[in-house]
C-alpha cells in the first residue's frame, strides 16, 4: 500500500512539463461573448406593428431613460455609468422586451442601473439606490398613494432590486462586455497615448482637437438615449462621434479642417470608410425618427454624406491593426514628455492639498469654529 501511495506521489518529468494550470484549474465562469449589434431594420421591427402598443412601449422606455438620468444626478454618478446603463437597457429590451406596466419597467431599470454601477466600479450603498428610486416613484409615478405607504414602498423596492439584479445577470448570460464608448474615448486619448502616440500630430490640429474631443464626449452621452449602441460597437460609436463633431467644426468654424493622415487607422482597431459611416449616420437618423423625440436629437445634422466624410478623413488603404494590443505596450517604455507631465500633475495636486489643509487649519477658521461652538452651547 505504501508503494502504491509513493507511486502516486511521484510525478514524472514529462507530466511536470505538460502541466497546464488552465486545464487542471479552469475558470469557474468563462467570460462569454455575444453579438450585440443589429441592423437598423431589426431594431425598428422590435417595436412591433400595433401603433397603440408602440406608443405605450416608447413612453415606458423614455421614463426608464429619464430614471437613469435622474438617479445619476441624485447619486452623483459618472457619465460613463449613465452610458453603461443605457447600453444594458437597450440590450435587455431588444432580447427580452419590457413589462407592460411602468412600475415593473422602473424596477428592471433599477437593477440595470445597479449592474452598470458595479460593472464600471462606480457603486453606491443599496440604501442610496432604494431611496433614489422611491423618490422617483413618488414624484413621477404613484403620487399620493406612494407617499402614504412610503415604508412599504422602500421594502418592496429593496426586495425587487435584490431579485432583479440576479435575474438581469442571468438574462445577459454574465456577458457584461459593454464596449462603453464613453470609457473607450477616455482611454484612447488619455495622457499615455497623447504623449506616446499622438505627439507628432500637426500643431494646428493639436490646438483644435481637445475642443472636438469634448464635443464628442457630449455627443456620446446624448446619443446613447437612442438605441445607437445596438447599431454599432464601442469603437465605431467613438469614431462616429469624432466624425460628426469634426464635420460640425468644419462647417461652422474652419472649412479647411480635416483629421491627420491615417488618424483613424492609427488610433482605431476598426476600418473607417466614408461609405460605411454614411450608412451609419442614415441609420442613426432613422432610429431618431422611430424612437424618441428628444431635445438632444441631431435631426437634419445627421445628413452627412460620403463626400462630406471624404473631405474630413485621409485614410490610406491597408490592413487594420489593433493599436491597443498588449504586446505593443508591455515593455513599459514611455517618452520623457509623459514622465514630465505626470510629475507636473503630482506637484499640482500636492500643492493644492497643502493649500487646502492650511486654509482649514488657519487661526481664522479655528476662531470662527470656536465662536460657532459657543453659540451652539448658548
From TrEMBL:
One Gene Ontology molecular-function label: cyclin-dependent protein serine/threonine kinase regulator activity
SUPFAM superfamilies assigned to the protein according to its UniProt record, in alphabetical order: Cyclin-like
Region (Disordered): 356-378
InterPro entries linked to this entry: Cyclin-like_sf (IPR036915), Cyclin/Ssn8 (IPR043198)
GO biological process, one term: regulation of transcription by RNA polymerase II
Protein name: BN860_14158g1_1
Amino acid at each position: 500500500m505504501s508503494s502504491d501511495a509513493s507511486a502516486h506521489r511521484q510525478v514524472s518529468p514529462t507530466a511536470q512539463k505538460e502541466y497546464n494550470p488552465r486545464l487542471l484549474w479552469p475558470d469557474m465562469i468563462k467570460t462569454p461573448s455575444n453579438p450585440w449589434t443589429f441592423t437598423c431594420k431589426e431594431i425598428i421591427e422590435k417595436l412591433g406593428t400595433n401603433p397603440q402598443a408602440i406608443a405605450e412601449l416608447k413612453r415606458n422606455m423614455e421614463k426608464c431613460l429619464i430614471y437613469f438620468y435622474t438617479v445619476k444626478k441624485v447619486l452623483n454618478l459618472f457619465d460613463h455609468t449613465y452610458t453603461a446603463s443605457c447600453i444594458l437597457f437597450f440590450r435587455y429590451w431588444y432580447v427580452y422586451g419590457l413589462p407592460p406596466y411602468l412600475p415593473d419597467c422602473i424596477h428592471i431599470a433599477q437593477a440595470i442601473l445597479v449592474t452598470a454601477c458595479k460593472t464600471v466600479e462606480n457603486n453606491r450603498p443599496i440604501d442610496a439606490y432604494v431611496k433614489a428610486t422611491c423618490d422617483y416613484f413618488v414624484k413621477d409615478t404613484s403620487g399620493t398613494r406612494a407617499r402614504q405607504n412610503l415604508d412599504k414602498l422602500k421594502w418592496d423596492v429593496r426586495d425587487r432590486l435584490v431579485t432583479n439584479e440576479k435575474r438581469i445577470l442571468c438574462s445577459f448570460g454574465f456577458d457584461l462586455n459593454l464596449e462603453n464608448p464613453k470609457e473607450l474615448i477616455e482611454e484612447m486619448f488619455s495622457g499615455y497615448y497623447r504623449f506616446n502616440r499622438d505627439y507628432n500630430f500637426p500643431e494646428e490640429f493639436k490646438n483644435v482637437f481637445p475642443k472636438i474631443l469634448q464635443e464628442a464626449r457630449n455627443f456620446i452621452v446624448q446619443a446613447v438615449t437612442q438605441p445607437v449602441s445596438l447599431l454599432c460597437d464601442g469603437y465605431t460609436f467613438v469614431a462616429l462621434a469624432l466624425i460628426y463633431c469634426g464635420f460640425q467644426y468644419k462647417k461652422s468654424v474652419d472649412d479647411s479642417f480635416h483629421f491627420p493622415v491615417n488618424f483613424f487607422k492609427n488610433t482605431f482597431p476598426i476600418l473607417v470608410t466614408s461609405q460605411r459611416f454614411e450608412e451609419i449616420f442614415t441609420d442613426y437618423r432613422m432610429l431618431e425618427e422611430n424612437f424618441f423625440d428628444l431635445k438632444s436629437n441631431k435631426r437634419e445634422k445627421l445628413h452627412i454624406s460620403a463626400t462630406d466624410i471624404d473631405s474630413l478623413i485621409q485614410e490610406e488603404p491597408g490592413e487594420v491593426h489593433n493599436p491597443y494590443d498588449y504586446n505593443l505596450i508591455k515593455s513599459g517604455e514611455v517618452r520623457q514628455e509623459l514622465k514630465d507631465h505626470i510629475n507636473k500633475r503630482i506637484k499640482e495636486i500636492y500643492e493644492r492639498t497643502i493649500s487646502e489643509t492650511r486654509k482649514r487649519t488657519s487661526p481664522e477658521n479655528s476662531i470662527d469654529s470656536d465662536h460657532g461652538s459657543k453659540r451652539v452651547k448658548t
